[in-house]
Predict the structure.
Amino acid sequence: MQSNPGSSTSRSLLERVKSNDADAWTRLVTLYAPLIYRWARQAGLQDHDAADVGQEVFRTVIQRVSEFHRDRPGDTFRGWLWWITRNKLGDRFRCLANEPRPVGGTGAHEQIEQVAAGLPQEPDTDAQFDPERSLLHRTLALLQREFECTTWQAFWRVVVDGQSATDVAAELGMTAGAVRQAKYRVLARLRCESSDL
């Protein structure tokens, strides 16, 4: 399926989310749920608690997405999501701290109370995980469905694999101009999709 510049896909993902586009909401969750889950697990939550935090974060996003603006340099959607996630993590840890203490006490209750107070101002990232790269891969996977196979292959081989347009054209039975056009179309769609994220 080819993307149509006149369709709703020509607007940014965040614009479409703000206008209650169900497909855009699904895309946003697909792109950012793994990151939010990772943040919750890094904070020390178990699987089910991390999933619950993710749901609470997206509930807040859907209620307040119209409030997100890039007013200052450095304002990012991901930063805004971290701020919401941090608040929801604090809520979760306070809730866990109020649960009855297990019989025989292992000190877990005290640890939970300490974690809620010590959540970092910025998300913790380890050296092997690159959230931007991970997000880019998920975005590309979603966009791939919008393009014909040869268009996508031409884009991928030139941009990702670093091959020349002439070599790719020969391999795919296209002209070098068509390969460059395919590259342009996919990159333009990628920029549009993520312009305000």
Q: What stands out?
A: Residues 1-9, 115-120 have pLDDT under 50 and may be disordered. The two ends are 24 Å apart (CA to CA). The chain has nine helices and no strands. The CA atoms of residues 77 and 197 lie 5 Å apart.
